[in-house]
Every structure is written in structure tokens, then in C-alpha cells.
Amino acid sequence: MTQAKALFLGPDGVVLPDNLVCSGQLVADLDGRPCPYAVEGRIPDPQPLDAQAPTYSVDKGAPGDLCPPCAKQSLGSLAHWQGHGGQQFPEHLLPLRLFKCRLWLWLVVPGLRDAAPAVLACDGEVEAEWP
């Protein structure tokens, strides 16, 4: 199995890897086609935010923070949203930075913690593994 580059969080508590969501396999609005923001059916790699870029918005984070190019907004730590609307997320994902993508789906990037938004930890820690 391919390691997830992002994990999408459903309102029903389901956690799905980016290859299933970005490829269009599971998102009805995409009619089986890949997301127009995807790269080969996967989420694009997070990039440092550039305050001078025309697509920059403070809603995505501070300059230098890592953010997937397809994100509309950073919502802070996933832990902040634990219990919101009755949703329960896996404990090991709670330190991660939560984003809303352009399709309005919630996602986290394994290794991208809200406490260190400019660093992508790729050290094989638990949250980097697809559940």
C-alpha cells in the first residue's frame, strides 16, 4: 500500500488516504475523475506559504508555513475540533494541522503538526502511517 500524503476526515469519523479521495474514486462531485488540483491522483506536496504570491491568504497560515497548494484554509490543530459536532478523531492525529481543501473536505498531512507548521516531520512516526 502506498503511504498516504494526506488523510481526509469524514464527518462520520472515517479517515481516508489521499489516493482514494484525490483520484476521484470516492468523491461524488468529481464523477470518478481526479480532483483538478491533484497531481497524478494524489494531493500536491505542501509548499511554504509566500506572502507575495497572488494565491496567498492569511487564512492558510503565516508566511513560511507549509500548506498544500489546494488548501483554502488552515483550521489550526485537529485537537481543537475534537468533539465538534460529535466528531471523534484518532488520538494520534490530534496534533496535526487541519486544512479545508478547495472541495471543502477536511484533511491533515501526516508529519505536519500545528505546533511546528513550517516543518514536515518524515521520521516514520505513528501519524505518518495510514490507519
List keywords for this structure.
single chain; mainly beta; five-stranded antiparallel β-sheet; two-stranded antiparallel ribbon; 1 helix; 7 strands; globular; disordered C terminus
Summarize the structure.
This protein has one helix at residues 18-21, and strands at residues 7-9, 15-17, 47-48, 66-67, 71-77, 96-101, 106-113. The protein has a five-stranded antiparallel β-sheet. It has a two-stranded antiparallel sheet with strand order 3-4.
- The backbone outline, from C-alpha atoms, is globular
Which structural category fits the helices and strands?
A: mainly beta
Describe the main β-sheet briefly. Answer: 5 strands, antiparallel
Strand order of the largest sheet: 2-1-7-6-5
Listing every helix as H and every strand as E from the N terminus to the C terminus, the arrangement reads EEHEEEEE
Query: What oligomeric arrangement do these chains adopt?
Result: single chain
Rounded to the nearest angstrom, the radius of gyration is 14 Å
Q: Tell me the helix content.
A: under 10%
Q: Strand-residue fraction?
A: 15-25%
State the distance separating the first and last CA atoms.
Answer: 11 Å
Helical segment count: 1
Number of beta strands: 7
What is the typical, i.e. mean, pLDDT? 88
Poorly predicted runs are 124-131
